[in-house]
Amino acid sequence: MALRLHKVNRAARAKRIIVDALIYVLLAVICIIWVFPFVYLLAQAFRVDTQGISLTMFPKNWQYGFDNFIRLFTENTSTSNFGRWYLNTLVISIIVAVINTIVTLATAYTLSRLRFKGRTLLMRFMLILGMFPGFLSMICIYRLLKLFDNVVPSFSTSIFALIVVYISGSMMGYYISKGFFDTISRSLDEAAMIDGASRNTIFWRIILPLSKPIVVYTILTAAIGPWGDFMMSNLIVGRASIDNWTVAIGFQEWLSSSNVGTHFTLFCAGATFVSIPIVVLFFILQRYYVEGVTGGAVKG
Length: 300
Hints:
70% of the residues lie in helices and 0% in strands. It contains 14 helices and no strands.
Protein backbone atom coordinates (compact mmCIF):
# COMPACT_ATOMS: atom_id res chain seq x y z
CA MET A 1 0.00 0.00 0.00
CA ALA A 2 2.82 2.36 0.90
CA LEU A 3 4.62 1.54 -2.36
CA ARG A 4 1.44 2.25 -4.28
CA LEU A 5 0.99 5.63 -2.57
CA HIS A 6 4.62 6.44 -3.27
CA LYS A 7 4.14 5.78 -6.98
CA VAL A 8 0.99 7.92 -7.04
CA ASN A 9 2.82 10.78 -5.33
CA ARG A 10 5.72 10.50 -7.75
CA ALA A 11 3.34 10.57 -10.71
CA ALA A 12 1.51 13.58 -9.30
CA ARG A 13 4.81 15.36 -8.62
CA ALA A 14 6.05 14.65 -12.14
CA LYS A 15 2.78 15.89 -13.61
CA ARG A 16 2.99 19.07 -11.55
CA ILE A 17 6.58 19.70 -12.68
CA ILE A 18 5.60 19.26 -16.34
CA VAL A 19 2.61 21.57 -16.00
CA ASP A 20 4.72 24.21 -14.22
CA ALA A 21 7.40 23.94 -16.90
CA LEU A 22 4.83 24.44 -19.67
CA ILE A 23 3.35 27.44 -17.86
CA TYR A 24 6.78 29.05 -17.46
CA VAL A 25 7.59 28.43 -21.12
CA LEU A 26 4.29 30.00 -22.16
CA LEU A 27 4.90 33.00 -19.90
CA ALA A 28 8.41 33.41 -21.30
CA VAL A 29 7.08 33.38 -24.87
CA ILE A 30 4.39 35.94 -23.98
CA CYS A 31 7.02 38.11 -22.28
CA ILE A 32 9.26 38.02 -25.36
CA ILE A 33 6.35 38.94 -27.62
CA TRP A 34 5.38 41.79 -25.30
CA VAL A 35 8.94 43.16 -24.94
CA PHE A 36 9.89 42.81 -28.63
CA PRO A 37 8.23 46.07 -29.86
CA PHE A 38 9.89 48.07 -27.08
CA VAL A 39 13.32 46.62 -27.82
CA TYR A 40 12.84 47.32 -31.54
CA LEU A 41 11.72 50.89 -30.80
CA LEU A 42 14.75 51.56 -28.59
CA ALA A 43 17.14 49.97 -31.10
CA GLN A 44 15.83 52.10 -33.96
CA ALA A 45 16.03 55.24 -31.84
CA PHE A 46 19.84 54.96 -31.75
CA ARG A 47 20.18 54.13 -35.44
CA VAL A 48 21.87 56.87 -37.43
CA ASP A 49 23.03 55.08 -40.57
CA THR A 50 19.75 55.65 -42.41
CA GLN A 51 16.40 57.29 -41.81
CA GLY A 52 14.26 54.59 -43.43
CA ILE A 53 12.34 51.74 -41.83
CA SER A 54 14.37 48.67 -40.95
CA LEU A 55 12.56 45.35 -41.25
CA THR A 56 15.07 43.56 -39.03
CA MET A 57 15.81 43.99 -35.37
CA PHE A 58 19.58 44.36 -35.79
CA PRO A 59 20.51 45.45 -39.34
CA LYS A 60 24.09 45.26 -40.54
CA ASN A 61 26.50 48.19 -40.64
CA TRP A 62 24.86 50.03 -37.81
CA GLN A 63 26.08 53.34 -36.52
CA TYR A 64 25.04 54.10 -32.97
CA GLY A 65 24.58 57.58 -31.59
CA PHE A 66 22.28 60.18 -30.08
CA ASP A 67 21.73 62.06 -33.33
CA ASN A 68 17.99 61.35 -33.36
CA PHE A 69 17.54 62.58 -29.79
CA ILE A 70 19.47 65.76 -30.63
CA ARG A 71 17.32 66.30 -33.72
CA LEU A 72 14.18 66.07 -31.59
CA PHE A 73 14.89 69.44 -29.99
CA THR A 74 16.94 71.14 -32.71
CA GLU A 75 14.90 70.41 -35.82
CA ASN A 76 12.14 72.97 -36.38
CA THR A 77 10.45 72.61 -39.75
CA SER A 78 6.95 72.61 -41.20
CA THR A 79 6.53 68.99 -40.09
CA SER A 80 8.71 68.86 -36.98
CA ASN A 81 8.62 70.84 -33.74
CA PHE A 82 8.96 68.20 -31.05
CA GLY A 83 10.02 70.57 -28.28
CA ARG A 84 6.81 72.58 -28.60
CA TRP A 85 4.67 69.41 -28.90
CA TYR A 86 6.26 67.97 -25.77
CA LEU A 87 5.71 71.19 -23.83
CA ASN A 88 2.06 71.34 -24.94
CA THR A 89 1.46 67.73 -23.90
CA LEU A 90 3.22 68.22 -20.56
CA VAL A 91 1.24 71.37 -19.71
CA ILE A 92 -2.06 69.75 -20.72
CA SER A 93 -1.35 66.59 -18.71
CA ILE A 94 -0.36 68.52 -15.56
CA ILE A 95 -3.39 70.82 -15.66
CA VAL A 96 -5.78 67.96 -16.43
CA ALA A 97 -4.23 65.74 -13.73
CA VAL A 98 -4.63 68.43 -11.04
CA ILE A 99 -8.19 69.44 -11.93
CA ASN A 100 -9.37 65.88 -12.60
CA THR A 101 -7.95 64.70 -9.29
CA ILE A 102 -9.69 67.45 -7.31
CA VAL A 103 -13.04 66.97 -9.07
CA THR A 104 -12.91 63.16 -8.94
CA LEU A 105 -11.96 62.96 -5.26
CA ALA A 106 -14.47 65.62 -4.24
CA THR A 107 -17.23 63.80 -6.12
CA ALA A 108 -16.21 60.46 -4.62
CA TYR A 109 -16.13 61.88 -1.09
CA THR A 110 -19.55 63.47 -1.56
CA LEU A 111 -21.11 60.24 -2.81
CA SER A 112 -19.39 58.25 -0.07
CA ARG A 113 -20.34 60.41 2.90
CA LEU A 114 -23.50 62.36 2.04
CA ARG A 115 -26.99 60.92 1.61
CA PHE A 116 -29.38 62.86 -0.59
CA LYS A 117 -32.35 62.19 -2.82
CA GLY A 118 -31.40 60.66 -6.15
CA ARG A 119 -27.88 59.69 -4.98
CA THR A 120 -28.13 56.04 -6.01
CA LEU A 121 -29.74 56.92 -9.33
CA LEU A 122 -27.01 59.48 -10.03
CA MET A 123 -24.25 56.96 -9.32
CA ARG A 124 -25.81 54.36 -11.58
CA PHE A 125 -26.33 56.91 -14.33
CA MET A 126 -22.67 58.04 -14.23
CA LEU A 127 -21.45 54.44 -14.06
CA ILE A 128 -23.48 53.39 -17.11
CA LEU A 129 -22.58 56.56 -19.02
CA GLY A 130 -18.89 55.96 -18.35
CA MET A 131 -19.09 52.53 -20.01
CA PHE A 132 -19.56 54.11 -23.44
CA PRO A 133 -16.32 54.89 -25.30
CA GLY A 134 -15.44 58.55 -25.55
CA PHE A 135 -15.20 58.65 -29.33
CA LEU A 136 -18.98 58.23 -29.58
CA SER A 137 -19.31 61.83 -28.40
CA MET A 138 -16.72 63.30 -30.77
CA ILE A 139 -19.21 64.73 -33.27
CA CYS A 140 -21.29 66.28 -30.51
CA ILE A 141 -18.18 67.76 -28.86
CA TYR A 142 -16.97 69.18 -32.17
CA ARG A 143 -20.32 70.87 -32.87
CA LEU A 144 -20.49 72.23 -29.34
CA LEU A 145 -16.98 73.69 -29.50
CA LYS A 146 -17.73 75.31 -32.86
CA LEU A 147 -20.57 77.24 -31.20
CA PHE A 148 -18.05 78.85 -28.85
CA ASP A 149 -16.12 80.21 -31.84
CA ASN A 150 -18.78 82.91 -32.09
CA VAL A 151 -17.78 84.12 -28.62
CA VAL A 152 -14.04 83.31 -28.59
CA PRO A 153 -12.47 83.17 -32.07
CA SER A 154 -10.66 79.91 -32.86
CA PHE A 155 -11.70 78.44 -29.51
CA SER A 156 -12.53 75.05 -31.06
CA THR A 157 -8.92 74.59 -32.22
CA SER A 158 -7.18 75.85 -29.08
CA ILE A 159 -5.30 73.98 -26.37
CA PHE A 160 -7.69 75.45 -23.81
CA ALA A 161 -10.62 73.73 -25.55
CA LEU A 162 -8.74 70.43 -25.39
CA ILE A 163 -8.18 70.87 -21.64
CA VAL A 164 -11.88 71.66 -21.12
CA VAL A 165 -12.86 68.47 -22.97
CA TYR A 166 -10.47 66.33 -20.93
CA ILE A 167 -11.73 67.62 -17.56
CA SER A 168 -15.42 67.79 -18.47
CA GLY A 169 -16.18 64.16 -17.63
CA SER A 170 -13.76 63.73 -14.74
CA MET A 171 -16.48 63.24 -12.12
CA MET A 172 -17.58 60.01 -13.80
CA GLY A 173 -14.33 58.37 -12.69
CA TYR A 174 -15.45 58.49 -9.08
CA TYR A 175 -16.09 54.77 -8.58
CA ILE A 176 -12.66 53.55 -7.43
CA SER A 177 -12.14 56.62 -5.26
CA LYS A 178 -15.53 56.21 -3.62
CA GLY A 179 -14.73 52.61 -2.78
CA PHE A 180 -11.53 53.75 -1.10
CA PHE A 181 -13.29 56.45 0.92
CA ASP A 182 -15.85 53.88 2.04
CA THR A 183 -13.04 52.01 3.81
CA ILE A 184 -12.17 55.06 5.94
CA SER A 185 -14.13 55.04 9.18
CA ARG A 186 -16.95 57.57 9.42
CA SER A 187 -16.08 58.08 13.08
CA LEU A 188 -13.27 60.39 11.94
CA ASP A 189 -15.81 62.64 10.22
CA GLU A 190 -18.13 62.55 13.20
CA ALA A 191 -15.38 63.38 15.68
CA ALA A 192 -14.19 66.29 13.53
CA MET A 193 -17.74 67.63 13.14
CA ILE A 194 -18.19 67.52 16.94
CA ASP A 195 -15.06 69.68 17.19
CA GLY A 196 -16.61 72.16 14.79
CA ALA A 197 -14.93 71.18 11.53
CA SER A 198 -16.83 71.71 8.28
CA ARG A 199 -17.12 69.17 5.50
CA ASN A 200 -14.57 71.14 3.52
CA THR A 201 -12.07 71.04 6.39
CA ILE A 202 -12.66 67.34 6.97
CA PHE A 203 -12.06 66.55 3.30
CA TRP A 204 -8.85 68.56 2.88
CA ARG A 205 -7.21 68.15 6.28
CA ILE A 206 -8.34 64.73 7.49
CA ILE A 207 -9.51 62.49 4.64
CA LEU A 208 -6.99 63.42 1.92
CA PRO A 209 -3.89 62.98 4.14
CA LEU A 210 -5.15 59.46 4.86
CA SER A 211 -5.82 58.79 1.16
CA LYS A 212 -2.39 59.07 -0.41
CA PRO A 213 -2.75 55.81 -2.42
CA ILE A 214 -6.00 56.84 -4.10
CA VAL A 215 -4.68 60.37 -4.71
CA VAL A 216 -1.62 58.95 -6.49
CA TYR A 217 -3.79 56.51 -8.44
CA THR A 218 -6.12 59.30 -9.57
CA ILE A 219 -3.25 61.58 -10.57
CA LEU A 220 -1.55 58.87 -12.64
CA THR A 221 -4.70 57.80 -14.45
CA ALA A 222 -5.67 61.43 -15.11
CA ALA A 223 -2.24 62.31 -16.50
CA ILE A 224 -1.80 59.22 -18.67
CA GLY A 225 -5.00 59.91 -20.63
CA PRO A 226 -3.96 63.24 -22.26
CA TRP A 227 -0.33 62.09 -22.45
CA GLY A 228 -1.06 59.42 -25.05
CA ASP A 229 -4.39 60.50 -26.51
CA PHE A 230 -4.61 60.96 -30.27
CA MET A 231 -8.26 60.88 -31.31
CA MET A 232 -9.59 63.77 -29.24
CA SER A 233 -6.47 65.89 -29.57
CA ASN A 234 -6.44 65.40 -33.34
CA LEU A 235 -10.11 66.38 -33.51
CA ILE A 236 -9.51 69.67 -31.70
CA VAL A 237 -5.94 70.90 -32.23
CA GLY A 238 -5.11 68.74 -35.25
CA ARG A 239 -6.66 71.42 -37.47
CA ALA A 240 -4.68 74.21 -35.78
CA SER A 241 -1.14 75.44 -36.24
CA ILE A 242 1.68 72.94 -35.82
CA ASP A 243 2.70 74.81 -32.66
CA ASN A 244 -0.56 73.73 -30.99
CA TRP A 245 -0.09 70.02 -31.68
CA THR A 246 0.57 67.37 -29.06
CA VAL A 247 3.17 64.65 -29.42
CA ALA A 248 0.57 62.11 -30.54
CA ILE A 249 -0.45 64.27 -33.51
CA GLY A 250 3.18 64.98 -34.37
CA PHE A 251 4.07 61.29 -34.28
CA GLN A 252 1.17 60.50 -36.58
CA GLU A 253 2.44 63.14 -39.00
CA TRP A 254 5.91 61.61 -38.92
CA LEU A 255 4.47 58.18 -39.74
CA SER A 256 2.45 59.44 -42.71
CA SER A 257 3.37 58.07 -46.12
CA SER A 258 5.14 61.28 -47.13
CA ASN A 259 7.34 61.56 -44.01
CA VAL A 260 7.92 58.05 -42.72
CA GLY A 261 11.01 57.53 -44.86
CA THR A 262 12.84 60.47 -43.29
CA HIS A 263 11.28 60.61 -39.83
CA PHE A 264 10.96 56.97 -38.75
CA THR A 265 14.05 56.89 -36.53
CA LEU A 266 13.08 60.33 -35.24
CA PHE A 267 9.68 58.89 -34.32
CA CYS A 268 11.35 56.02 -32.43
CA ALA A 269 13.55 58.45 -30.51
CA GLY A 270 10.55 60.65 -29.69
CA ALA A 271 8.45 57.69 -28.56
CA THR A 272 11.29 56.52 -26.32
CA PHE A 273 11.71 59.97 -24.81
CA VAL A 274 7.97 60.42 -24.22
CA SER A 275 7.65 57.06 -22.47
CA ILE A 276 10.44 57.73 -19.96
CA PRO A 277 8.56 60.11 -17.60
CA ILE A 278 5.52 57.84 -17.30
CA VAL A 279 7.65 54.72 -16.73
CA VAL A 280 9.81 56.41 -14.10
CA LEU A 281 6.80 57.95 -12.37
CA PHE A 282 4.97 54.63 -12.34
CA PHE A 283 7.88 52.71 -10.82
CA ILE A 284 8.37 55.36 -8.13
CA LEU A 285 4.69 55.45 -7.20
CA GLN A 286 3.83 51.82 -7.97
CA ARG A 287 3.20 50.92 -4.32
CA TYR A 288 0.65 53.70 -3.88
CA TYR A 289 -0.92 52.90 -7.24
CA VAL A 290 -1.53 49.25 -6.30
CA GLU A 291 -2.82 50.22 -2.84
CA GLY A 292 -5.24 52.67 -4.44
CA VAL A 293 -6.63 50.08 -6.84
CA THR A 294 -7.00 47.34 -4.22
CA GLY A 295 -8.32 49.73 -1.58
CA GLY A 296 -10.94 51.11 -3.95
CA ALA A 297 -12.06 47.63 -4.89
CA VAL A 298 -13.00 46.63 -1.34
CA LYS A 299 -16.37 48.33 -1.34
CA GLY A 300 -18.69 49.75 -3.99
